[in-house]
Amino acid sequence: MVVTNWIIYIYAVVFSIYAYFSHPILNPLLLILSCSLFLVSLREHRLWAMPWVRLLILCCFHWTAQLNLALPLYLLLLSRDIYTEDSTKKSWSLAASFALVYMTTAFYTSEDDSIHLLWLFVLSNSLHFVAAVILTKTSFMNLKQTELLRKERALLSKQDSLTGLYNFEECHRRLEQLIEENRSLVLILIDCNDLKSMNTARGFQAGNFILKQIAELLKILFSDALFISRYGGDEFAVVMPYMQNKQAFPSYKLQLDSELPKLTGIQITYGIATYPSDGVTKDDLILLAEHNLFIKKRETWLKREEHMLRSEKLRVVGELASGMAHEIRNPLTTVRGFLQISKANGYNIENWYSMIMDEIDRMSELTAEFLQFSKPHSTQFRIHSLHECILKVISLMESEATRLGHQIHYSESFLPVPILMDQDKMIQLLLNLLKNACEAMEETGVIQIKLTRDQKHATLVIEDNGPGIPSELLEKIFHPFYTTKESGTGLGLSICHKIVQDHEGTLEVESAPHRGARFIITFPLSTEELDSSSEKSRF
Q1: What is the pLDDT of residues 59-79, one digit of tens each?
Q2: What's the pLDDT tens digit per position in 363-377?
Q3: Which of 215, 224, 331, 432 is most exposed by smallest CB count within 10 Å?
Q4: What is the spatial distance between Cα 78 and Cα 301, in angstroms, rounded to a whole number?
């Protein structure tokens, strides 16, 4: 715009001098006055009608000079007035006005006979003004686009595109500049601890929203900051003026410990360093702030781990209490069954006295084991017959099954099935599974127990003909505390699964609606028995 004005100034003065010396002018003073008014009118004015006022003054200047060499002035003035004009309609209106005024003035002031070829005169000059509009608008758009790109590059080189704060490089540059100016300041590095987990759980859009929210909150909470920047992915840097009386530090900590986490919903850790008391260079200051941030994060992590450890201890205590109640209930159920049968039928319990005492002893052992749960102890595994364990469990459950109207059918293996086991745990496992089968069958039902073996493994199948387990619940039945029983603890099957794992076995379940449930357990056979079998086969 400045260059265009100077071109117009120079051309107007040269045009006036040429008009004065080239031919006689009616009134030289009028020429000087109109030229002066035209030059003055080129100054910036905010009046919407100013382009038409300048056009009128230029028309008077043209009429006074009596020369058609004024066409460049019309074209330059038109380009100047429409250069920054956003309205296309107004631009073309100005072009039409300029063309009409120029051609009218030129027609009456020209002494050349060729001007009377009106159609050629109008066409050529119209093309001049149309070309001026097109070239001006095109150059303006190109220059505007170039300026926007330049500003965007400058913005991207200094600011973070997401939050609008200064980026990492600009933060270092400004911090170094403040230190060179010997400005006392406080550097605060802020880390958003839960942002990575939030990105994983809820996606990056949620994380980006939190980052923008934190940026806006930092501007509000630290309104007197020298500058605020996004220091890293989930870190921010705030540089505050240093107060010699140190009254500002409690307010900083209050805002970072309470206000910011409360407003954002995520945990914040931070590190603070001051200049010049903590460091005399930029690198020393940043290193100390990062060190303090690390110490703060470590303290937060230790507190979180301590809280998790305390919660885990409480959970284990809860499982211990529930498991103890659940496991003691099994022998109590056996004793209760014998007593109910004897009372209903007038039987003498002398035949079952030893079995009842065994169950009572097992309750005592279970109680002692749970009470000493926190003490480290080693379980003594010995080789026992899985077949004998099954027979013992059937004898224990027979009274309960008879009371409920169920039958237990057992198909044993023709070969011995020695297993390296903890016999009490194995009996506990089988009792839990048989009891669950009895409770699952609402009407008179049958429990099928089948024991088989191959060269290396023993397979035990316990199957009932109850309503079965819904497919959507199959994946949950081994979870601790998951139960569909009103009085259940949800630990029975989880304890069974743990016992099978301790014996290096596998536990699988198959079920279909109205076809019952089938538990398939595999155990490795005793290595000693396999070795002895191999020796026998050699002979």
Answers
A1: 888 888 877 788 888 888 888
A2: 776 665 555 444 444
A3: 224
A4: 70
